[in-house]
Amino acid sequence: QVRLVESGGGLVQPGGSLRLSCAASGSIFRINTVNWYRQAPGKERELVAMISSDGTTHYLDNVKGRFTISRDNPKNTVYLQMNSLKPEDTAVYYCNAEDLIYSTGISYKSLKVWGQGTLVTVSS
Length: 124
Fold this sequence. Notes:
Layout: E1 3-7, E2 10-12, E3 18-25, E4 28-31, E5 34-39, E6 46-51, E7 57-59, E8 67-72, E9 77-82, E10 91-103, E11 108-114, E12 118-122
Parallel strand pairs: 2-12
Antiparallel strand pairs: 1-3, 3-9, 4-10, 5-6, 5-10, 6-7, 8-9, 10-11, 10-12
């Protein structure tokens, strides 16, 4: 069994900061590209940031200069540092591993895995 678990969400005032964590558990061999998505009420889920296995990053235009995605491969954890938060950043944030390679004990398999989400609320 493999899982992604997000944490770090909560209530923060505009201009504040939060750091989200996405920790993978299970018989992980390698995690390639990892994405952070968010979904606000009444809106489509949107890609916020992504990081490749070599550390290359990409961001949604709305969060450039404010959000930073990073990864700690030995810990199988990806982070999203969010600074200068705005009310429009309020959403449930999900991490997604596009190509998570894990061991079944017999062979290696590749799987797309989603976390359960963590709620970020930005409000004064």
